[in-house]
């Protein structure tokens, strides 16, 4: 970096990243390869992750078309570190990219929530749906104290063989959508009736609005100003930290970030939910590549049944009223075309859920098929196919977990179960 670039970079606000799996590493790497890279702070959840990072030379490696690019210059913090009282561990966080798995987002944010405020912006990059709801409920119950939120939906394919080393195998994009903040506009503009509450009631006073979480929906805080919601927001109108984060991400050309409207990001998120509900769980069931789900009559029938339930749930979700052409976009036939297209495009991928199950790691199935089942239950739509897929993934993980534990018997009196290797 030239001296002027260093000087310019020191002016740029720090971006913190929590979660250094495939997606976190891709984004961190991309930001550090900018001509004027912002300072990036990687937040590790445990000391041993930091030790591994140091052993890798404090660098992140990304391989594309067999060409490796290695970047350094990262700062880091460890959440459970003894030195947690040091100023950098207490300083406010302006921008935070949350790239953890869905089930890790809340525990991670609990540990650093005091460093976040309404002046901060967090970007969520999880698979599935329901994470924002959980964060609002258990990390930031008071809407007035919440940070600004950007949803990011990733369609890049990446896998890793070693920590902090990622193979960027499938080029996709990352769509960004800004979640509108509460308090909402005046009551006359608020006609949206949420799944769990009615926001048409009189405009609450700031204090009652702050505590009224019943007016929120799974998809965040929504108000129905169609003009505002159906086109991407004007950057100038966004809170400063949101604008800064989005501007820098839009300049990362290798990851093709794009800003879309709030209804559009919900639609993209739901399409991805449908794709993951089918491909991820079925590849676990059949222990196969994505492409092996194609051209198989029995599997086609299972795909159709799964999508039929998902389509019915999406059609009934009142918080999605703002999504244009919802009936056509989320019809079972269209969803099937989307799923088949992605299975073809990612034919030689091992789905992220199958990667997790094989490694004995918790999956995101509760936020994918589980989300459909829970939403269906709220709306009176039974989703037994998705329920079975969810339980099947969890059952398979338990089986593999038991086998992995057998490989490391902690109890010397334990004798191996007499099952030859079939899984
Ligand atoms: C699109 C797909 C199914 C690609 O593998 C994916 O998103 C995943 O594996 O999580």
UniProtKB/TrEMBL annotation:
UniProt entry keywords in alphabetical sequence: NADP, Oxidoreductase
InterPro entries: 6-PGluconate_DH-like_C_sf, 6PGD_dom2, ApbA, Ketopantoate_reductase, KPA_reductase, KPR_N, NAD(P)-bd_dom_sf
Enzyme class: oxidoreductase
GO molecular function: 2-dehydropantoate 2-reductase activity; NADP binding
Annotated Ketopantoate reductase C-terminal domain residues: 265-396
Region described as Disordered: spans on this chain: 177-236
EC number in record: 1.1.1.169
Example of a GO cellular component annotation carried by this entry: mitochondrion
GO biological process: pantothenate biosynthetic process
The Ketopantoate reductase N-terminal domain, residue ranges: 15-179
Pfam name, any one: ApbA_C
Domain of life (superkingdom): Eukaryota
Bias (Low complexity): 187-233
Gene3D superfamilies in UniProt: N-(1-d-carboxylethyl)-l-norvaline Dehydrogenase, domain 2, NAD(P)-binding Rossmann-like Domain
Family: Belongs to the ketopantoate reductase family.
Protein name as annotated: 2-dehydropantoate 2-reductase
Organism of this sequence: Drechslerella stenobrocha 248
